[in-house]
Prior knowledge:
29% of the residues lie in helices and 13% in strands. By secondary structure, the chain is of the alpha/beta class. The longest helix has 34 residues, at 146-179.
Amino acid sequence: MDVGAFGSLSRLILLKLEGNRLNVLKDGVLRRLQSLEVLLLDHNNISVIETEALAPLRSLTLLSLQSNQLQRVTFKSFLKLHTTTTTTLLRMSSNPWTCDCDLQRVFGKIKRVRHLHVYDYQDITCHAPAHQAGSSLASLDSQLCLCETASVLVITLTVMLAVIGVLVKAEHNHKNKRNAPVHIKKCKP
């Protein structure tokens, strides 16, 4: 879509772009659509939502991105969506989501934003990795970051033990130097 495609439609309230083979929701494409309330982008090939693409939409109440090619999204893309007085409903199921710790964090943050609500969160299904394919993201919420958290804990413990080991060795060396006999050489006159 050309960035200036909707330049003369500043009063548009409903935009249906379903089934148009769109690949990317680009920054600037929606910049003149501050009055837009409903944006239906279902059944496209959207795999990328650029960070500023949704920022101009001040009146949006429904954004539907069902049945696209979204594997990942960034929190910033949705955080820029500032509606003044309404809650924006997001429909995002039927995408080939890669369910990992990053995706869990993004949806966790979206759920905590007062003016955003993922309407079909319970229906968001993992496509990858293979061992999670078919599982709902909601059912995996507490598990996705578990391995990452365990790895961080192991690394932290390893570093702490290394630091403690260095401190103990330094103290041991210090004590040995203090208790070592002092050899004084006599000078010949």
